[in-house]
Batch of 2 targets.
Target 1
Amino acid sequence: MNHSTDEAPLGPLDGDYVRPAEPYVPDDCDEPRPTAKQLSYLRALADRTGQTFAYPKTASQASHEIRRLQGQKRTSRVERRVERKHIADAIARGPENAANVDVDRETEGYGSTATWR
């Protein structure tokens, strides 16, 4: 092949050195991930204080969340139990008591012979 000097080649030629591609590293990965110990402690603190936390991507974010939750007031077991019961009841009720049966829309029969009332 004849390559003119006026045009730049579209790719490497045989025998040309090709630098290996660098792996993509996201900007937020310059720090190590949170340790299992940090995550376990975060869950325990969140449970004790009745708070939630955003899942940290780095160890420093986990440390920041730990410090934030350590500064929160601790709630009693009774308060946490009552709150969990309220949440469970709200989930069970669903939007506009979605678990209620609409008798007018109930079916009769079984399997392929089932029909609407």
Target 2
Amino acid sequence: MDRVCQWCRITFRAYPSYVERGGGLYCSRDCKDKAQSARMKAEPPEKSPHWMGGKVKCLCVNCGKEFELKPCLVKTRNFCSKSCSASFSVKLRLPKGSVLTCRVCGKEFYRTPSAINRKDKKPLYCSQRCRAIDSIKNQKRQNTDIENIVEKWLIEKHFVYEKQVDIEGIALIDFLVNSEFCIFADGDYWHSKPSRVKIDKRQTKQLVANGYTVIRLAGSDILSGKFKEQLCHIIS
């Protein structure tokens, strides 16, 4: 049957059964929402069948700030903001966990009880970088050809050096000479990858900032013997 929208006054068609149930007053959902919004603004909220007395003043459990809530939310919300809720959750969680010491860099870090009690992976490291350094340091592998060449030269020149040294959790150094010079024997293929180049630059920057002299030797220069002049010039 034909009906006239009570909001926009446009004629539209509606099912008779829908009109009998009290519908068919508006031509669309948008018109219904606009009419309801206008009615709520014109009439006081006390006349609404869902009126529960207005907002209730509450105190934030975390910061103590006063804020207002709808009566239906009083039992479920105790914080004035999401930041207060997150801060309070952290305060509750901290005493339950433990502060551990990283086995690589010695830095203290926090882990939850669930992480500490896992059977497969115990929290021994503060970061993935420290985990990778420890894995490389302890893995059973033979020195590469270019590392053997550099080591042989260091022995011939009677330099005091250490092999596979972890420097403050920054990187695993191939050779540390005189506790000052960090020598890397970088293979051309692996260390030419963009992701690896980015890591190498970051490590070099951090080592230099900590007072070390960084020497990165390309694999091709080591095989050709050019590295000897480079090392003699820098170390001497």
